[in-house]
């Protein structure tokens, strides 16, 4: 059974006003004093962000328990200095992001200007282990059409600088400003993958291969494929669903590769359209079906994804839970829908944030 790890980025906010707080250095200093959390939390581009990474897990129940624990520990450390955490992929309230002071982040601020300043966006990255780079590239080539469905399920960023954007995942639109971000062409071999990365770094447009922001990539640090399309999810159960489906996609793709099944040859242009539609609609309208690239109701596209990975999920015992969680999202709404419903009920973006703090730790 393939192991799975999750990286989540959380927003540091004032518990009363809901406004983002640039206190990540202080929170990290608190975490470093706790032996159990020294290797869990990391700094990110902006001081209003805090990232944690789980350990690799084979059981989704174990993964859920660790996500819940890390969220609660993040809230505890933040609470010690007067703030808290919210699993929001953008800040609903206006914010002036503070870029970290290390050399890497300052290089990015100088090179990319306002795009860096405005990149206060928070994602969920899923690592699924693979046996080799060869298997990993084969997986990257074959999961491409399905990643937009993960983006739709996880969408959790409808607001930007105090306004409703009209998007379910505005985070993904801001993220696309990086020059190396987005879907990729079919690589076909490990050599071609690594050659493309080297060529991109050689342009000097990105600092190094850590700035290869493909939707799915080979991890630099671990023997994994890293899937990077999801918003940070409001609820831990949604994060577990994304990890479950990601593992199912990786296993299904690896089996297709071993069976000699060629990847679906959608162009990057079509994949970008599918990404845009997922960001715009989330689960409230239509998505582009990964096989046909034609518009279909979101429910039908989600059902197709479950069918696509069904055999792999059944073998790991995750299929029924994945179906139940998907049904719950389609019925009750993803994070974007929850945020909009909270605003409609309360009339206050501050109340949206403070209520989402509670959801984050539920």
Automatic annotation (TrEMBL):
Domain of life: Bacteria
GO molecular function, one term: ligase activity
Reactions catalysed according to its record: L-cysteine + L-glutamate + ATP = gamma-L-glutamyl-L-cysteine + ADP + phosphate + H(+)
Pfam families linked: GCS2 (PF04107)
Keywords: ATP-binding, Ligase, Nucleotide-binding
Claim: ATP-binding is one of the keywords in the record: yes
UniProt EC number: 6.3.2.2
Enzyme class name: ligase
Protein family (similarity comment): Belongs to the glutamate--cysteine ligase type 2 family. YbdK subfamily.
Described purpose of this protein according to its UniProt entry: ATP-dependent carboxylate-amine ligase which exhibits weak glutamate--cysteine ligase activity.
Full protein name: Putative glutamate--cysteine ligase 2
Taxonomic source organism: Streptomyces bullii
């Amino acid at each position: 059974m393939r192991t799975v790890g999750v990286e989540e980025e959380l927003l540091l906010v004032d518990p009363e006003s809901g406004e983002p707080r640039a206190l990540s250095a202080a929170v990290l200093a608190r975490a470093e004093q706790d032996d159990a959390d020294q290797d869990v939390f990391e700094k990110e581009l902006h001081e209003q962000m805090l990232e944690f990474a789980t350990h690799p897990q084979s059981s989704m129940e174990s993964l859920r328990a660790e996500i819940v624990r890390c969220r609660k520990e993040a809230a505890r450390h933040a609470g010690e200095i007067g703030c808290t955490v919210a699993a929001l992929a953008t800040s609903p309230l206006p914010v002036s992001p503070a870029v970290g002071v290390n050399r890497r982040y300052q290089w990015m601020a100088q090179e990319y200007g306002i795009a860096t300043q405005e990149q206060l966006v928070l994602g969920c990255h899923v690592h699924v282990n693979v046996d080799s780079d060869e298997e990993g590239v084969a997986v990257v080539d074959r999961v491409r059409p399905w990643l937009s469905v993960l983006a739709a399920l996880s969408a959790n960023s409808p607001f930007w600088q105090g306004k409703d954007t009209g998007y379910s995942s505005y985070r993904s639109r801001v993220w696309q400003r990086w020059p190396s971000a987005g879907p990729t062409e079919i690589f076909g071999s490990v050599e071609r993958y690594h050659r493309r990365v080297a060529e991109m770094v050689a342009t000097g447009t990105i600092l190094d291969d850590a700035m290869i922001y493909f939707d799915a990539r080979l991890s630099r640090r671990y023997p994994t494929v890293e899937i990077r399309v999801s918003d940070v999810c409001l609820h831990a159960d949604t994060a577990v669903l994304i990890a479950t489906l990601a593992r199912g996609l990786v296993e299904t793709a690896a089996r297709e590769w071993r069976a000699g099944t060629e990847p679906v040859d959608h162009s990057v242009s079509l994949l970008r359209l599918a990404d845009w539609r997922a960001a715009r609609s989330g689960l409230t309208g239509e998505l582009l079906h990964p096989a046909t690239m034609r518009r279909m109701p979101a429910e039908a596209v989600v059902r197709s994804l479950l069918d696509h990975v069904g055999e792999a999920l059944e073998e790991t015992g995750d299929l029924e839970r994945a179906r139940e969680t998907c049904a719950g999202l389609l019925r009750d709404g993803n994070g974007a829908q929850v945020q909009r419903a909270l605003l409609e009920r309360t009339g206050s973006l501050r109340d949206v944030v403070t209520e989402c703090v509670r959801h984050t730790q539920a």
